[in-house]
Amino acid sequence: MASLELKNVGKSFGGLKAMTDVSFTVEPGTITGLIGPNGAGKSTLVNLITGLLKLTTGSITLDDREIGTAPPEEVVRIGVARTFQNIRLLTEATVLDNVLIGFHRREEASILSGLLSLPSSRHETARLKTAAMELLERFGIDHLAQIPAGTLSYGHQRRVEMARAFATDPSILLLDEPVAGMNDVESERLGRLFRSLAESGVGILLIEHDVKFVSRLCRDVHVLDSGRIIASGTPDYVLKHPDVIAAYLGADDFEGVA
C-alpha cells in the first residue's frame, strides 16, 4: 500500500488564496483526521487531492507519483477513491449494480467482447458480481443486494457509497463527512467498519465536522482553518491547542471535547 503526501499545497482562484502551504501525510493502514469549522477549506482540499481542482502550488503524491495535476479518472486508477458529502448513487439501480460500477477499474475484457457477449466477457461479469457480493457482505449490506439503492435508509446508502468507492481497490480512501446526519449508534457502527478497512492496509483520510467522532478513531489529526493547517498531532494535543479552540469557539460539536 502507498502513502499519500501533500507538500506545501496551495490553491488560488484569481487573486484569492483558498489554500496555503498545506502539508501532511496519510500512511497505509491508518486513519488520519482532517477537521475544521465550516468554510475552512476541507472540501477544496479533497477536490485538489482527487483531481477535480488543479494545484496552484506544491505537490500531491501517492507513493512518490505526482497526482496533483492528474485528471480525476487517472487519480482513481492510481489508487485514490472518495465518498461525497452528499450521497451520489443511482437511486433506481440496485445496490449490487451501484457497487459494480466501482469495479470498472478491474475490467479486463474488451468492449467488443461485451457487445458480442463472448465467453471472456461473461466470465468476467460473473467474477465481478461474485466480488461485489463479497464486498457487500464485508460492509454488512449483502442482504440488500437486489434492493433499489434509493429506497434504503440514509445509513445504508452511506455504506453502499463506501462499498462502491472501495470496489476501485484504492490505496487511499477519502471519506468526506461520512457520519453527517447520523445518530451515535449509526456512527459507531461505521467507525468499526473504518477501523476494519484501515486494518486491511488502506490509508483513510477522514474529513469530518464531528470532532468527537474523529478523536475516537484517528491516530493523527490535522486542523484546517481559512485554508491553512493551524495544528497537527494526536487528538489530545490538537483538541487542547489554543488556535483550535479559538477556531471552534462557540461550535456545538466542540463543547466538552477539548
Q: Any overview of this molecule?
A:
The protein is of the alpha/beta class and 258 residues long. The protein folds into two domains: 4-79 and 170-254, Rossmann fold (3-Layer(aba) Sandwich); 89-153, no CATH class. The chain is built from ten helices and ten strands. The strands form two sheets. The protein has a six-stranded mixed beta sheet, sandwiched between helices. A four-stranded antiparallel beta sheet has the order 2-1-4-5, with helices on one face. Helix 3 (95-101) runs parallel beside helix 6 (154-166). Mean pLDDT is 87; it is low at 109-116.
Write the layout of secondary structure elements.
Blueprint: E1 4-13, E2 16-26, E3 31-35, H1 42-49, E4 57-62, E5 65-66, H2 72-78, E6 80-82, H3 95-101, H4 111-115, H5 119-138, H6 154-166, E7 172-176, H7 184-199, E8 203-208, H8 211-217, E9 220-225, E10 228-233, H9 235-239, H10 242-247
Parallel strand pairs: 3-8, 3-9, 6-7, 7-8
Antiparallel strand pairs: 1-2, 1-4, 4-5, 9-10
Helix pairs in contact: 3-6
